[in-house]
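Q: A small favour: would you put together sequence and structure tokens for a protein?
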Amino acid sequence: MPVVPEEVVPGKDGGPQPAVGLGLFHDNPLPMWIWSLRTFAILAVNEATAAFYGYTREELLAMTVRQLHAEGDSAGLSGLARIPSASEAREVWQHRKKDGSLVCVEAVRSLVRLGEEAACLTIATGAGARNSPEGLYRFLTDAIPTSVLLIDQKLRVVFANRNFLEKSRRTVETTVGKRLSEVFPEIILSEMGLEQQIRNVFASSHPTRGQHLTYRAPGVPIRVYRYSVLPVDWGDKVDNVLFVLDDVTERTRLGEEIRLMERHLASIVESASDMVVSTDIHGDILTWNRAAQSITGYAIAEVKGRPFFDSCDPAAADRLRQLFCVGADRERSGRIESDVKTRNGGWRPVSWVVSRMIDDNMRTVGFVAVGRDLTEQRKFELQLLESQKLASLGVMARGIAHEIRTPLAVASSAAQFLQEDDVSPEFRSECAEKIHRGIHKASSIIENLLRFAHPSPDRNKTPVRIEDVVNEAVTFLDNQAKIQKVDIRTCFPDKSLRVLGVPSLLEQVFVNLFLNAMNAMPEGGAIGISAEESGGDVLIHVSDTGVGISPEDQDKIFDPFYTKAPPGKGIGLGLSICYSIVDQHRGAISVESRSGKGTIVTMRLPLLHTAGPYTAGDAPG
């Protein structure tokens, strides 16, 4: 390397020139220039620099070093602000000459002083060398992010590119000309059989590709490389081989994370107690988890590629096909209950949730169906229903026993008195009357029970005007309402509202509702009845201004024999019978109430739209 001047003094032309080593600077055939680290202005140049770039010395002294760099040489431009060390390694720059042509420059920089200002001496040691084939090869291999070694037949490194030197923390002096055993740890060479692989490539001229190498340079974490050994044929035989290493550490790590995630997801699916089935866009089965195999008895090999619909109840096939539709709403999951076929020829009830599988481009690529076996749930529901039936029977039995016991006890006592000889005619007549009333009371209870248990058949139904039925019930209770100071008001639309029903049963519903309302208003009040058409139904509202119903009682008011009335004032079948009659008419009944705020009972009955004469065959169902 030329002598580096330690200070700079003005030259004979007035410009700054080096004082120490002046001859070496002016007469050196290598381009040399000095520039300010603060302003990047060129302070001194030799004749070789002017000749190489095509500028005059005066033009160069009026320029900055930034103007020498090509626009695309971002690495070189960004490195200019870095203060060079005492013995800077070679750098490769892309410069532009005065005629506009590009040239690659290999140079070294050194720090010098210009008075109190820090400056940089640059020597182009390989200016223009990369315009040759060999220089171009060196430039390209230094530019790529792959480590490259050129190795001769004696397993010595002939060339090492910049990426390898940086990754391995080595220099050119400690790498080029050294044997592989001096560059790589012996344990790697022996375990990988690397030297033998290189000898095989020399012998066979066939490359070795896709091998993995784990290597750790001093002070650097372990890295994973994918390497290849490629023959270089300069003539009739292989003189060198290229040892090429790609750093795949991050790719390997990501691949391992993806594999772990895939195994985790697969484990979740396989461990699920619900059936998890995936299909393509046509509904053909792709995956079938362990629960699906356990529930149906079919292994994945037996169902893969077959339509999912073939495993389900044919009655639900059309609905399932709608859920497995590519054009369906991707934001919603479809739900359906459909039996699934088992190996033994049976069927298992399953509740399915079907969702779409979406790729990165928001396209449907398949479907996922998650099925829950409802067998145990159905058994539990059946047991619950049976227990509810038994509980209802118990309540009814207690109610019947309680209600019938009283009149029977009175009748029994009266009958015992009649058996005595010294009974006066008047008392005998009184006992007979009590027996008659007791039997009539028991008969009335039984009649209500039969009416509650055996609904009237549809053939007894006829078109009924709601206002007529309501008016009949109001007329029936008019005198009792006046005695109890209850005002009954009706409000019906101009258009007649007709339903299909049994007039006497519907009248009984309104009578029971009016009686309940009047019992809730012992000091008097008002009952309001209104009707309206709503969505093909008739809504009838019966409201009162009574004491209302407490929240804890509202869920029980339709239960048989449930009553809050004093003894002898009711048996608790009125609202139960109302509920049964409305249900027979394919309607619904509900109650809204608050303690002390009155009650509103709402009935919903199907509106009859038949315009012509009605016959029994017109009855629905």
